[in-house]
Amino acid sequence: AQKITQTQPGMFVQEKEAVTLDCTYDTSDQSYGLFWYKQPSSGEMIFLIYQGSYDEQNATEGRYSLNFQKARKSANLVISASQLGDSAMYFCAMREGYYDYKLSFGAGTTVTVRA
Amino acid sequence: DAGVIQSPRHEVTEMGQEVTLRCKPISGHDYLFWYRQTMMRGLELLIYFNNNVPIDDSGMPEDRFSAKMPNASFSTLKIQPSEPRDSAVYFCASRGYHEQFFGPGTRLTVL
Q: Which of A22, A33, A99, B59 has a CA positioned 20 to 30 A from the CA of residue B14?
């Protein structure tokens, strides 16, 4: 079974608008971590934001925020005030268990920011 | 810090040849991961090390693949013999507090 599901293969957003990227996950562990990475066309993987399963507050990092809904097993990424440089592939990933650090990645969502 | 360093950045080889990919993690990071990215399978973990010891190699596709970490600052991923289906981008990553920092990747093409 897929551990991370990203249902939006591609999205268009207007510059300066906000965009929400969906991510749902599947785990039976109580301790887990959720991550978002950005992969621009140049190919590198850039860490954006992290949310631990026990964190009560939604994580924020600059223009990125993670909308964590534990009961729904959802960890959506919100990018506010989109910029042209935000055009990239975005991956949601999960670490399961307290001592297991390997990441399972979703299929990714391509975001294209229009001027 | 220089970040995770991988070499070579691009490798083109012929089927049957041995390929060695190299990685230098960020200094002080005690976990190192090897991932492979393809269009068909996405990003998948191959193997990871803790303090130079392999912890989980369940993602290594077959015996043609091997990985070593002889010391805290160097790891190799070897494919012998290589096949066209091994063509992919191979990433090395090392772990900070929570997040993993990825290297720039090695784009491998096997003809």
A: B59
